[in-house]
Amino acid sequence: xxxxxxxxxxxxLVAALCLMxxxxxxxxxxxxxxxxxxTGRLLGVAQGCCEFEVPYGxxxxxxxxxxxxxxxxxxxxxxxxxxxxxxxxxxxxxxxxLCVASGRLGSVTVRLDEIASIRAQAPVRAEVAGMAKVAQIxxxxxxxxREIRGRGTTPSEKTPPTxxxxxxxxxxxxxxxxSPKTFLRESAVLLGPGxxxxxxxxxxxxxxxxxxxxxxxxxxxxxLAVVEDRRRELTFSPAVRVGLxxxxxxxxxxxxxxxxxxxxxxxxxxxDTRDEAGIGDVGARFKYLLxxxxxxxxxxxxxxxxxxxxxxxxxxxxxxxxxxxWIVGGGLTAIRSFDPISVFGGVQYGHLFERxxxxxxxxxxxxxxxxxxxxxxxxxxxxxxxxxxxSVVTETEVDGxxxxxxxxxxxxxxxxxxxxxxxxxxxxxxxxxGLNDDAADTILGLAWVKRF
Length: 452
Prior knowledge:
This protein is mainly beta. It has two domains: 156 residues, SH3 type barrels; 270 residues, Beta Barrel (Lipocalin). Helices cover 8% and strands 53% of the residues. The chain contains two helices and 28 strands. The strands form three sheets. The chain has a twelve-stranded antiparallel barrel with strand order 11-12-13-16-17-18-19-22-23-26-27-28. Strands 1, 2, 3, 4, 5, 6, 7, 8, 9 and 10 form a ten-stranded antiparallel beta sheet that branches. Strand 27 and strand 28 form a beta hairpin. Helix 1 runs antiparallel to helix 2. The protein is elongated, with a radius of gyration of 30 Å.
């Protein structure tokens, strides 16, 4: 009987060890700078903290700066501080760098200090919980796994697992800390709390399209008519964006504009060319990440207000540096990434408040803008993007009467290249073509972006 009991105990111990071996076959390895080594399951990295689940106790929360090497058996999304994203299994080289085996880009090596966040493609807590259950078989309950994992370089240097008492406000791995969509900086939330982004953009516009212009009726009244005007504009648009709090971002822009307009003073009679320079309409925008990408697209909501600080376009002698109206608006943007491709789309609404001019009540039409496009990450520093956008502008009313021909549907397509110059700086040339008569013919753009 005693012999039989020993045999059963040996069999149980062998089975338990086999189960533990099978569970750890697909485990991840984490090595710290002090020599400690842990085997378990990587849950994610965000906000400077690595969350790592082991077969014993609660998950470890380890400062990312203490990590020396990391290897994973499963594929993860690796997001860099530069805004780029990689997807693949992770291999460490014990030299402060990781090698991400991307299915499209091949093997890409990045330094640990370049990584902003790492998150799983799908939840892994259930699998890790299963590993914990296997490790808790009564026959091996006496084995202290902490004496096996995390032993360090020598027994005298043994250090207990690091436990951080104050976890980050959000669960690690549930949302990206920073998004790689720099080309969508005007619509997406890219900054963390306290981060600042300076955006210096310059555009040149050339347009010859039907425009709504006021004319004197000869009796002290005002006539609005749709005529062909040729316009050239050079605009310098400095903007500052600030990460206000988690998932929220604010922006303010103050454009400075030079505009030249070849205006028809009276239809089919005479024309004149005038220039004007000054401040355009100052705008402010608030954006909030409503839903982080987790099998579904990122969803960003925004509200905006524009003040009529630029000279309005009404008046025979006015070139116009602004709309002449207060504007409030809102919008939704959706973004989905498929390494190395991102697709996006959205809709925005703008309401221009009515105003009086020369004794007449002018009520501009409502504006609905829609856009869609895609971007392709050529490599770690260059992203090519293409966007189609269109608007629907309802008819303008003057003293309650619709202005014939004021309904517009401009459509255009934009192509751009976003190039990373350094760790926190980018430049972006772009060109936009008008696709119909309501849109501007050509808009050339050049932007320089710096994050602090």
